[in-house]
Write a structure and sequence with these properties.
About 25% of the residues lie in helices and about 25% in strands. The protein is an alpha/beta fold. The longest helix is centred in the N-terminal third of the chain and has 17 residues.
Length: about 375
């Protein structure tokens, strides 16, 4: 297989030869006018659902999950971490078991690179807990995690938890030794607790700037994470979760090499506005694109798509196209420990490719083709 385009990092017109891995990347000997860019396939480390399918529901069929993945390919995403949030031990295990079955049975299953569990070991306090159900929040438990990992057939690679629990440092040390990325999120932890978590092996902050008290003291868990250079950070750039000023300050504090874009998409993403149910929670997808708890103003995930996230971060933070794409390709590959995806468009890397157009005037992205392991998956 071969395809060509403008290398998103160098601006050079290139031709890529590939099977399941990239074999050659060569400059075009006779470049022709082109407005199609090519980049490593985009990666999303936090997707709770998409296109009407809730990954937290054990009742989601394999066919429905396959449909949601094919819809995600339209947005340029080639690999993602389906995300299971706080719930009962039985429901979380059932959801993970269902996702593992889909990953192993679907032709598109390779796109489900690994799984992310967000909770249940988070802050029980109103504010930091976010939209997670309070009755199922609990302290870290290594034995329970092993049961969840067994249900997931070993596919859990990212866990979001709060360092405020006394058990957190020991728990983090244990899961990190097993190859799982530990991320700080939904927390009210002190500076000392955050440092202890990082010393134990935590390397990421989940959707930093969200899931917090409405009023914070001058010194707080958001600034403590921003100041910790050993932590990368993910950001939901959908115009609702973060103010433009916070996003700019956060990107400067972390540096672009330690920042990643996530969508935190939930089941209504890609669907018409209206009421929806996410597990135990009723939500509304509003006409403005925000997803909020029914009858209130609190955000409950997002309806963001990764192509729109790239547009938004360019507009809000003044990034150029190369910088914006790195936040959804090489950076999440490194943070999420995705093998053969961390060096960019070079021979030997997986042939996950996104070809897209970018309008400089309107700063809009249109995905043209998506390849997964060398197979064209969009258009299918």
């Amino acid at each position: 297989m071969k395809c060509n385009g403008i290398h998103v990092a160098s601006g050079e017109q290139i031709e890529i030869s590939f099977q399941d891995l990239i074999q050659h990347v060569d400059p075009l000997l006779a470049p022709t006018p082109s407005d199609v860019y090519i980049s490593p396939g985009w990666i999303d480390l936090q997707v709770n659902g998409f296109a009407g399918v809730d990954y937290n529901s054990p009742q989601a069929s394999v066919e429905q999950i396959g449909h949601s993945i094919r819809e995600m390919f339209r947005t340029g995403v080639t690999r993602f971490f389906p995300t299971v949030i706080t719930g009962s031990p039985e429901d979380m295990a059932a959801a993970l078991r269902n996702l593992a079955r889909a990953k192993e049975q679907l032709p598109e299953g390779a796109a489900m690179e690994a799984f992310h569990i967000e909770g249940p070991y988070i802050s029980p306090e109103e504010g930091p807990r976010g939209a997670h159900p309070a009755r199922w929040v609990r302290p870290p438990d290594v034995d329970e995690f092993r049961r969840l990992q067994d249900a997931a057939h070993g596919h859990i690679r990212l866990i979001t938890l709060s360092p405020e629990w006394p058990q957190s440092p020991q728990f983090i040390e244990t899961v990190v030794r097993q190859g799982v990325v530990a991320s700080i999120g939904h927390t009210k932890a002190s500076a000392e607790q955050i440092t202890a978590a990082v010393d134990a092996g935590a390397t990421l902050s989940t959707h930093l700037g969200n899931a917090a008290h409405p009023v914070l003291p001058r010194g707080n868990y958001i600034w403590d994470q921003l100041a910790e250079d050993r932590l990368a950070a993910s950001f939901i750039v959908d115009s609702f979760h973060l103010s433009r000023s916070f996003l700019n300050v956060a990107l400067r504090a972390k540096g672009l090499e330690r920042a990643i874009l996530v969508t935190d998409a939930v089941m209504p993403a890609g669907c018409p506005p209206g009421p929806y149910r996410l597990g135990e929670v009723d939500v509304v997808l509003n006409a403005d694109g925000s997803v909020r708890l029914s009858g209130g103003s609190r955000l409950a995930g997002s309806a963001l798509q990764m192509d729109r996230a790239i547009e938004n971060v360019i507009r809000a933070a003044g990034l150029n196209l190369r910088e914006a794409v790195s936040l959804t390709s090489r950076n999440p590959a490194r943070v999420g420990r995705i093998s053969s995806r961390q060096r960019g468009l070079v021979p030997g890397e997986r042939a996950d490719l996104t070809r897209f157009q970018f309008d400089e005037t309107t700063q809009t992205v249109r995905v043209v083709e998506t390849y997964l392991d060398g197979l064209r998956v969009f258009p299918g």
